[in-house]
Amino acid sequence: MVRIAVAGTGYVGLVAGVCFAEVGHQVTCVDIDENKVNVMRSGVSPIFEAGLEELMQKNYSAGRLNYTTDYQSAYRDADAIFIGVGTPEQPDGSANLSYIATVARQIAESVEKDCLVVVKSTVPVGTNDKVEQFIRDFLVNDVRVEVASNPEFLAQGSAVHDTLHADRIIIGTESKWAQEMLMQIYEPFHLPIVSVNRRSAEMIKYASNDFLALKISYMNDIANLCELVGADIQDVSRGMSFDERIGSKFLNAGIGYGGSCFPKDTKALEYIAKQHGYELKTVKAAIDVNEEQKKILYKKASKRLITLHGLKVAVLGLTFKPGTDDLREAASLENVPLLLEQGADIYAYDPVGAENFARIYPEGKHGRGSITYVDHIEHALDGANVCFIFTEWGEVKAITPEMYKKLMRTPLVYDGRNIHSVAQMQEAGVEYHSIGRKHTSKEGSKELKDNELQYS
Ligand code: UDX
Predict the structure, then answer these.
(1) Fold category of 296-453 in CATH
(2) What is the pairing mode between strands 65-68 and 386-389?
(3) How is domain 204-293 classified at the CATH fold level?
(4) What ipTM is given for this predicted complex?
């Protein structure tokens, strides 16, 4: 058992802390927000994440997990302190390290015994060296403090599962002592451990995320070309996926990647490269393609319709992906303002993200348009002139073509996630536009000619 303190109770910190407790370590999670700490103590998770609340309650009751705002008492006698605070993107694309610096200073002023500080937050290459120096500069007591890198690869919506069953644990250390401490902490997880130096560990995180972002942008680029040449992106990606060198995951074309990692980490790595006088062309291309892709449905609809003014527009899904209430960099945030600007009357449905969205766009009039939040998909579709699908929630996937046909005033659907069958939509007489596939006409099973597939 290792005595662990975790700084920050966001996705990374809280999930890590809970999972460390789950495998038997003694964990204290630190946050500056008193309310949040009280909420967590009462067994409620501040984030929507499958299975997290159960593990919080179980480990809190077992006495292995605690929450506090009193960082001094948490850091004082910890064997290891994990830093999981945010590194938000700054306007120039660089990572804001002020939260890390604040925690580093608090650690320096609190620790009373030798301890390993482990940075889980995604930070520019070389940051761990600086954090170590910073802590040593401000150390109050004569103790040994070392910094290690241990990047996090969890995805939102499956964070607990991803942590307990990770593909690999990356540890970046500069001494045997630090390496052994991290090995001991991760031993009960029984997962492959890749032990490298600190800078390589920092780089592995960016290189992995940016590679996945690149993969998605590449598929989106190919999807757009598929539409123009009359190929089907789903058939194309299926055909590609049998090649083990390519792999079968992250080949889904859509309306671009969102979330808290890919957009931020692609821009951060591009910025790091620039700082070193190097142009990272591949990552820049991924960013550019993604920015265009997020607006692709809106562009298609604008070409098809004279105006959106006064039309009832159903918006299905607001979050950047299903299984989370997170809206960061979601395609909905790009499209809803454009639709409102054009005077659309939006009826938005999202099973968990609507409340957060309403904080940004409160229900009611917005210029020429308006937004109303509905609890049932049917209410969004009922009498609608157009439907946009931004997130592939299970209940959205379950809509049948006949429902669009029956409920909508004009069955015109723009699907950014390719969740429906083109053939079935065509059969049902729904005009259906998706990504990288043929579109159908509302005349039903009429086969479209290739030249009708072009939209730009
Ligand atoms: C991602 C990484 O997966 C994770 O390893 C890292 O630690 C943090 O960033 P997350 O942002 O939670 O996790 O979600 P993820 O499931 O990776 O999806 C990111 C975005 O890419 C979503 O908007 C999703 O819709 C999109 N995506 C994903 C695609 O458009 N196509 C795909 O094939 C896969």
Answers:
(1) Rossmann fold (3.40.50)
(2) unpaired
(3) N-(1-d-carboxylethyl)-l-norvaline Dehydrogenase; domain 2 (1.10.1040)
(4) 0.98
